[in-house]
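COMPLEX REQUEST
Ligand: magnesium ion
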Amino acid sequence: MTVPSNPDPSGKSDADVSRETWKATDNYETPIGAAAERAMQVLHTVAGQLPRPRSRRVLTVANQKGGVGKTTTAVNMAAALAVQGIKTLVIDLDPQGNASTALGIADRRSGTPSSYEVLLGEIPLQAAIQQSPHSTRLFCVPATIDLAGAEIELVSMVARENRLRTALAALDDSDFDYVFIDCPPSLGLLTINALVAAPEVLIPIQCEYYALEGVSQLMNNIEMVRAHLNPRLSVSTVILTMYDGRTKLADQVANEVRRYFGDKVLGTVIPRSVKVSEAPGYSMTIIDYDPGSRGAMSYLDASKELAQRANPA
Ligand code: ATP
Ligand code: MG
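STATUS: Structure written out below.
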């Protein structure tokens, strides 16, 4: 498992790193002033600035490689859409519960209505939804430690791969415009449930050595789920994370990923940023923790790209 530096051991600040997004989108001379200005602009934008999808978009955030930015991408994309007027739900399907924590869901004790009870069919999805304290448009189905047993418990159950899809189908289509499903770093039954429940896969890829390692296995699994369980499934979006503009390696990886996935890769790249890694420690997304930071702006840009891309559904 890749263990990312947290905090950044290089000791360099946000302003030193990750210039690709900056160069691509900004002409400002003073990054800090520009950042504040951009944050003000975005946060004061009236609701409805982004195009709403024709129908609900459900994206499974998957990569069996650990620590590549799945959870960070799920919660920050969701928060970025929410701040721009779009009602968004994050389903935490990882027993680690990191998405729930980042979204400010305080009560994650065993027994709290969560994705576990939903998968087991004990409660409807609606009954497990909690509002994030940071936004009236951001919601979460939390994960508790109970979910750790679900992989085993599901094995003997009827329609074990379809449980999340069935639960989501009961949710009114007008309830949410976007649903992000945060997966654990494995290709077990939890991830399969997520792949069966969504038409779109969002793959975060860390700009590091061996970035594409395991991706062909992930693609094989996606293909198997598509062939046997969910014919609508496709990889709609790839996002490059933890990009460090100081290194040649980051550019090499970015180019390699763009060659492999073509225009599925968002133009916006998420920089490696200490602020991004600090935010969950305060039970916040980067959008709430520091809306003027590079990390927040890049997720805001990425969410705009996602919303403006044609809805493949
Ligand atoms: P897992 O496979 O364990 O679920 P993951 O793929 O969900 O991991 P994250 O938890 O999102 O990955 O990120 C791994 C670590 O990297 C976390 O400590 C997170 O705070 C940090 N991190 C994620 N994105 C960035 C970034 N852009 N800059 C700096 N640190 C980051
Ligand atoms: Mg995670």
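REMARKS: DSSP finds 13 helices and seven strands in the chain. The two ends are 33 Å apart (CA to CA).
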